[in-house]
Amino acid sequence: MKPNATRTRSGRSGLDVLEQLRVVVRIAGAHSARVERSTGIPGAQLWALHEVGSADGLRVGELAQRLRLHQTTVSNLLNRLESRGLLRKGRSPSDQRVVHLHLTSAGRKALKNAPGPPRGLLPNVLDGLSPSQLRKVHEGLAVLVDHMGGLDPALAGKPMPFNE
Known about the structure:
The protein is mainly alpha-helical. The protein contains 8 helices and 2 strands. Strand 1 (87-91) and strand 2 form a beta hairpin. The N and C termini lie far apart (39 Å).
Protein backbone atom coordinates (compact mmCIF):
# COMPACT_ATOMS: atom_id res chain seq x y z
CA MET A 1 0.00 0.00 0.00
CA LYS A 2 1.16 3.54 -0.76
CA PRO A 3 2.31 5.69 2.16
CA ASN A 4 -0.46 7.88 3.62
CA ALA A 5 -3.11 5.93 1.71
CA THR A 6 -4.98 4.42 4.63
CA ARG A 7 -7.67 2.09 3.33
CA THR A 8 -11.14 1.93 4.83
CA ARG A 9 -13.29 -1.18 5.18
CA SER A 10 -14.59 -0.55 1.66
CA GLY A 11 -11.03 -0.78 0.32
CA ARG A 12 -10.97 2.90 -0.68
CA SER A 13 -8.45 5.43 0.50
CA GLY A 14 -8.64 9.19 0.80
CA LEU A 15 -6.40 9.37 -2.26
CA ASP A 16 -8.95 7.36 -4.26
CA VAL A 17 -11.58 9.96 -3.39
CA LEU A 18 -9.13 12.77 -4.17
CA GLU A 19 -8.63 11.30 -7.66
CA GLN A 20 -12.40 11.34 -8.21
CA LEU A 21 -12.65 14.95 -7.05
CA ARG A 22 -9.84 15.90 -9.44
CA VAL A 23 -11.68 14.23 -12.33
CA VAL A 24 -14.96 16.00 -11.51
CA VAL A 25 -13.28 19.41 -11.26
CA ARG A 26 -11.18 18.89 -14.39
CA ILE A 27 -14.09 17.62 -16.53
CA ALA A 28 -16.28 20.55 -15.42
CA GLY A 29 -13.39 22.97 -15.98
CA ALA A 30 -12.65 21.57 -19.45
CA HIS A 31 -16.32 21.89 -20.42
CA SER A 32 -16.41 25.46 -19.15
CA ALA A 33 -13.23 26.30 -21.08
CA ARG A 34 -14.73 24.86 -24.31
CA VAL A 35 -17.88 26.91 -23.81
CA GLU A 36 -15.90 30.08 -23.15
CA ARG A 37 -13.65 29.49 -26.18
CA SER A 38 -16.66 29.03 -28.45
CA THR A 39 -18.76 31.92 -27.05
CA GLY A 40 -16.31 34.26 -25.34
CA ILE A 41 -18.61 34.09 -22.31
CA PRO A 42 -17.62 32.42 -19.02
CA GLY A 43 -19.93 29.68 -17.77
CA ALA A 44 -21.45 31.59 -14.84
CA GLN A 45 -22.31 34.51 -17.13
CA LEU A 46 -23.84 32.15 -19.70
CA TRP A 47 -25.95 30.52 -16.97
CA ALA A 48 -27.11 33.99 -15.88
CA LEU A 49 -28.08 34.81 -19.48
CA HIS A 50 -30.03 31.54 -19.65
CA GLU A 51 -31.94 32.33 -16.46
CA VAL A 52 -32.77 35.88 -17.60
CA GLY A 53 -33.77 34.55 -21.01
CA SER A 54 -36.16 32.07 -19.43
CA ALA A 55 -37.74 34.72 -17.17
CA ASP A 56 -37.63 38.16 -18.78
CA GLY A 57 -37.78 40.90 -16.16
CA LEU A 58 -36.18 38.75 -13.47
CA ARG A 59 -34.93 40.77 -10.48
CA VAL A 60 -31.29 40.66 -9.40
CA GLY A 61 -32.14 38.97 -6.09
CA GLU A 62 -34.19 36.33 -7.87
CA LEU A 63 -31.30 35.63 -10.22
CA ALA A 64 -28.92 35.31 -7.26
CA GLN A 65 -31.26 32.71 -5.75
CA ARG A 66 -31.47 30.76 -9.01
CA LEU A 67 -27.68 30.72 -9.39
CA ARG A 68 -27.12 30.14 -5.66
CA LEU A 69 -24.61 32.99 -5.66
CA HIS A 70 -24.22 36.01 -3.39
CA GLN A 71 -26.10 39.05 -4.69
CA THR A 72 -22.90 41.16 -4.86
CA THR A 73 -21.27 38.47 -7.00
CA VAL A 74 -24.31 38.43 -9.30
CA SER A 75 -24.28 42.24 -9.56
CA ASN A 76 -20.64 42.16 -10.68
CA LEU A 77 -21.41 39.40 -13.17
CA LEU A 78 -24.36 41.42 -14.53
CA ASN A 79 -22.19 44.52 -14.91
CA ARG A 80 -19.85 42.53 -17.17
CA LEU A 81 -22.78 41.24 -19.24
CA GLU A 82 -24.26 44.72 -19.51
CA SER A 83 -20.94 46.26 -20.57
CA ARG A 84 -20.73 43.69 -23.37
CA GLY A 85 -24.23 44.59 -24.54
CA LEU A 86 -25.69 41.15 -23.74
CA LEU A 87 -28.08 42.26 -21.02
CA ARG A 88 -30.06 45.37 -20.14
CA LYS A 89 -31.02 46.50 -16.65
CA GLY A 90 -34.19 48.47 -16.08
CA ARG A 91 -35.55 50.12 -12.94
CA SER A 92 -39.05 49.28 -11.82
CA PRO A 93 -41.37 52.24 -12.43
CA SER A 94 -43.12 51.58 -9.12
CA ASP A 95 -39.95 51.11 -7.02
CA GLN A 96 -36.67 52.58 -8.29
CA ARG A 97 -34.70 50.29 -5.95
CA VAL A 98 -35.82 47.23 -7.93
CA VAL A 99 -33.78 46.30 -11.01
CA HIS A 100 -35.30 44.09 -13.70
CA LEU A 101 -33.12 42.18 -16.15
CA HIS A 102 -33.67 41.73 -19.88
CA LEU A 103 -31.64 40.08 -22.62
CA THR A 104 -30.61 42.24 -25.55
CA SER A 105 -30.76 40.85 -29.08
CA ALA A 106 -27.00 40.19 -28.79
CA GLY A 107 -27.63 38.29 -25.54
CA ARG A 108 -30.35 36.17 -27.16
CA LYS A 109 -28.05 35.42 -30.11
CA ALA A 110 -25.14 34.49 -27.81
CA LEU A 111 -27.40 32.19 -25.81
CA LYS A 112 -28.82 30.58 -28.95
CA ASN A 113 -25.33 29.89 -30.35
CA ALA A 114 -23.85 28.60 -27.09
CA PRO A 115 -23.25 24.88 -26.69
CA GLY A 116 -25.32 23.20 -23.99
CA PRO A 117 -26.18 22.59 -21.35
CA PRO A 118 -26.91 26.29 -20.68
CA ARG A 119 -26.65 25.94 -16.90
CA GLY A 120 -23.29 24.21 -17.19
CA LEU A 121 -22.21 20.60 -17.09
CA LEU A 122 -22.08 20.11 -13.32
CA PRO A 123 -25.56 21.52 -12.51
CA ASN A 124 -26.95 19.53 -15.43
CA VAL A 125 -25.40 16.27 -14.22
CA LEU A 126 -26.50 16.89 -10.63
CA ASP A 127 -30.07 17.58 -11.82
CA GLY A 128 -30.00 14.23 -13.64
CA LEU A 129 -29.16 12.20 -10.54
CA SER A 130 -31.87 10.26 -8.78
CA PRO A 131 -32.97 11.64 -5.39
CA SER A 132 -31.09 8.78 -3.71
CA GLN A 133 -27.88 9.46 -5.65
CA LEU A 134 -28.12 13.20 -5.02
CA ARG A 135 -28.62 12.59 -1.30
CA LYS A 136 -25.50 10.36 -1.18
CA VAL A 137 -23.38 12.94 -3.00
CA HIS A 138 -24.68 15.72 -0.75
CA GLU A 139 -24.06 13.72 2.42
CA GLY A 140 -20.55 12.77 1.34
CA LEU A 141 -19.64 16.33 0.42
CA ALA A 142 -21.18 17.62 3.66
CA VAL A 143 -18.87 15.34 5.66
CA LEU A 144 -15.89 16.58 3.65
CA VAL A 145 -16.88 20.24 4.12
CA ASP A 146 -17.38 19.69 7.86
CA HIS A 147 -13.91 18.16 8.17
CA MET A 148 -12.46 21.14 6.31
CA GLY A 149 -13.89 23.65 8.76
CA GLY A 150 -17.55 23.83 7.87
CA LEU A 151 -19.62 25.62 5.31
CA ASP A 152 -18.36 29.13 4.57
CA PRO A 153 -21.25 31.12 3.05
CA ALA A 154 -18.76 33.51 1.41
CA LEU A 155 -17.18 30.62 -0.48
CA ALA A 156 -20.52 28.97 -1.24
CA GLY A 157 -21.77 32.23 -2.78
CA LYS A 158 -19.08 32.42 -5.47
CA PRO A 159 -18.88 30.65 -8.84
CA MET A 160 -16.49 27.77 -9.39
CA PRO A 161 -13.04 29.22 -10.18
CA PHE A 162 -13.15 27.99 -13.78
CA ASN A 163 -16.62 29.53 -14.33
CA GLU A 164 -15.94 33.16 -13.44
